[in-house]
Write a structure and sequence with these properties.
The protein is α/β, with parallel strands linked by helices. It has one domain: Rossmann fold (3-Layer(aba) Sandwich). Helices cover 35% and strands 28% of the residues. It is built from eight helices and ten strands. A five-stranded mixed barrel has the order 3-9-8-4-10, surrounded by four helices. Strand 1, helix 1 and strand 2 form a beta-alpha-beta unit. Helix 1 crosses helix 7 and helix 2 packs parallel to helix 6. The longest helix is centred in the N-terminal third of the chain and has 13 residues.
């Protein structure tokens, strides 16, 4: 028996967009809540009550200007908890430098390779996980400088990746807005949800 693929989203609208494209016979899609804690807890609950072949954190995201434009699909090489650590006079100290844990979950390279082959237009790079979404140009510039390989930011990937605990894991996002000052009028949610549905059509083919 082939176990299904588990796709975890934050909210129902994202789950609906994935379901619109995914194969319902082989892909289970669940919304588990917003933020890394809800994502980790929800994913752990699902994995404890079912059997799955791989886990994908999916949804919409903000894209770094010049790296991932609105409407693009991005695949995560790593999911990075960008605000897990401590401030210092010399700058931000990630949790690794404090000696208390890790702030990076690497995506499964084989799963990412298959997804990239099925989604040749997808942009590949790191995806940041933040408990507080960026809302200023200053923060956007600071994050872009700290993470030169980052293409997007969202709020759940690191939590899902931690909970995946040994299963192949990947993060897949569709860009709804540029990272920086919050301007809801400039968001393109419809385009991002459409891109997410389109990408979801290949999930089982890539992971099966």
């Amino acid at each position: 028996m082939a176990y299904p693929l588990l796709v975890v989203t934050a909210v129902g609208a994202e789950a609906e967009a994935v379901r619109a494209g995914a194969d319902p016979d082989h892909v289970v899609v669940e919304a588990v809540g917003v933020g890394p804690a809800a994502a980790a807890a929800g994913t752990a609950r699902l994995l404890a009550t079912g059997h799955y072949r791989a886990v994908i954190s999916a949804g919409i995201a903000g894209g770094f200007p010049g790296r991932a434009p609105v409407g693009a699909t991005v695949l995560g090489v790593r999911s990075i908890a960008a605000d897990l650590g401590a401030e210092s006079p010399d700058g931000f100290l990630p949790i690794e430098e404090l000696g208390f844990g890790r702030s990076v979950v690497a995506g499964d390279p084989e799963l990412r390779k298959r997804l990239a082959a099925a989604l040749p237009d997808a942009i590949t790079g790191d995806i940041l996980t933040l408990a507080t979404v960026t809302g200023t140009a200053t923060t956007a510039e600071r994050l872009a400088g700290r993470f030169p390989e980052a293409v997007a930011e969202a709020m759940e990937g690191f939590g899902v990746g931690v909970a995946a605990a040994g299963l192949p894991f990947a993060e897949l996002r569709a860009i709804s807005n540029p990272i920086g000052p919050r301007d809801r009028a400039a968001w393109r949610l419809k385009d991002a949800f459409a891109a997410l549905s389109t990408a979801s059509r290949v999930l089982w083919i890539a992971c099966g």
